[in-house]
Amino acid sequence: FPHPTPPPLTTAAWRLSHLAELLTIRADHTTGSRALTRDDYRVEGEAAGGIAAFEAGVHAWRSVLAGADDAALDTVGYCGYPYGSDPENPFLDVVWWVNQEILHHGAEIALLRDLYRVRAGLGR
């Protein structure tokens, strides 16, 4: 940070790592220690580790959501994620944003996977 201009071409691995980091740190800043930073977050260097990190992030975020009641969803600052507007937003807005990020980058990952497969001559 700040983001480079123009933005670099990102890979499926970057997108998966971005989602894993986002889910893990947001979960920590919602019901965890509220201390995890991007500097603390370890980015995995190979596919299996990246997938495992994403799965761990999904598990952590799902645990947060499972524990959130209506009052939590309406609470401004319920998530104190320091790299966004989370401390100023009701938690429901944060949940919407995270869902949007997962859909957005998940679709990009699926498209890149399909393009790589076709380029390699592996068909559908």
Number of helices: 4
Q: What kind of sheet is the major sheet?
A: none
Overall shape: elongated
By DSSP, the count of extended strands is 0
Q: How are helices and strands ordered from N to C?
A: HHHH
Helicity level: 55-70%
Task: State the separation between the terminal residues, measured CA to CA.
Answer: 37 Å
As a whole number of angstroms, the C-alpha radius of gyration is: 16 Å
Average per-residue pLDDT, rounded, comes to 91
Structural class: mainly alpha
**Low-confidence runs (pLDDT<50, min 5 residues)?**
none
Strand content: under 5%
Count of individual domains: 1
Description:
This protein is mainly α and 124 residues long. The protein is built from four helices and no strands. The chain has one domain (12-119). The longest helix is centred in the C-terminal third of the chain and has 29 residues, at 91-119. The chain starts with 11 loop residues before the first helix and ends in a 5-residue tail after the last helix. The mean pLDDT is 91.
Task: Characterize this entry briefly.
This protein has 124 residues and is mostly helical. It has one domain. The chain is built from 4 helices and no strands.
Draw up the topology in text:
Layout: H1 12-31, H2 47-66, H3 70-74, H4 91-119
